[in-house]
User: What shape does this take?
Amino acid sequence: MPRRSTIHEQPLPPKTLVVDNGAYTIKAGFAAPVPDASDCHVIPNCIARERDKKVWVGAELESCRDFGEMAFRRPVEKGYLVNWEVEKTIWDSIFLDGRSKLYCDPHSTNLILTEASNTMAALQTNCDQVVFEEYGFASYSRHIGPTLNAYNDIQHLFGAPPREQQTSATPAECVLVIDSGFSHSTVTPVYKSRPIQQAIRRLDIGGKILTNYLKEMLSIRHYNLMNEEHLVNEAKEKVCFVSNDFRHDLERTWQGGAAKKKDGEEEIVVDYVLPDYNTGTKGSMRPHDPSMAAQVKKMGAMANAGGAVEDFMTLGNERFTVPELLFNPMDVGMKEAGLPETVMQSLSGLPPGLWPAMLANIVVVGGNCLMDGFMERLETEIRQLAPADCVVRVARAPDPIKSTWLGGANLATDYPAMKAMQVTRQEYLEHGSGWVSRIFNHTATR
Assistant: This one.
């Protein structure tokens, strides 16, 4: 019998870097003894090129003032990291640049990294090689992103007292994580910190498709914005909402519609003032102004007299028909179930005995859930589909963008649990990438 390796018994370095490598942004930061969302830095995961060919990498975009016709190149496509040439350029600017707040020496740093569910083995192998051979991190572990949310204080979201800071980050036993992000939306049942693979379901609609759909609608109805991804994405985040009565709202915005506004309802039609990159003015939403004075400003008739000139778009049903795709993908011909139906499809892959626990602990993360009305619509439709004898509780994480990162930071505070999951660089060199993949997939033991 071969002698058991003692490499795993060596202590890990004290510094741990947690990276939630999203398609739109990278959420990264060092794990502190008492994790806090303020320790997490949100960095654009892209390389951008201006009209004058100037190139911006990652965090440099925060100082950019002119996003007109900006072209973006992203290393993550359809949720999977496929372009390490671009990703490595971005990582180098974050982790190896001495001026960066996240500068570190990989040889004395542990890495906790997220990946998408059902990532192809070839992409996982590429990731392992870059982490250990290009950067040389001391130890590293890959986690399906939504599973890390189990290490957050889940019960506090549903009204329980907050977890004591001295308590180790014990993961929630059962949690159903709905992650609606940039590339796609996923439903992931997590049991004792591990995903139940056969029950993971994916909806190929995320923030990117919503932005592209809005871009096409605005280009037909208002201005040609097909090359203005950043501008349209900002407009989507500021004006879009999820309707809880789609037919009624559609009638309210239809020209000549006879539907009356219900008590307490806000006006749907608004004006969105476009940003002015020359003056640094950002885009903003305001109540619709149908007066002639607003049209005069728009046409620039007062420019010669020194008056203000502004460009704006009057938006009506665009505000809620775009996010409606998350609930009815058939509106654009996609033969997929909406998000509530996807949740029930995920539950169908679980033993019936787990249904009550999963339905009572539904946690929603990802940028799309920040849209007004999203949580109310999602909870209402899940209740309609769920068995009548099951309690349905749906909660949004306090910070849906940083929630996955915070779960990884909580895991890092539990040294024994983290050490059991980490693979050291010496183990990688001794056993190879295939063995590492089996360890991360829980199909092999040390």
User: Anything to note?
Assistant: DSSP finds 15 helices and 20 strands in the chain.
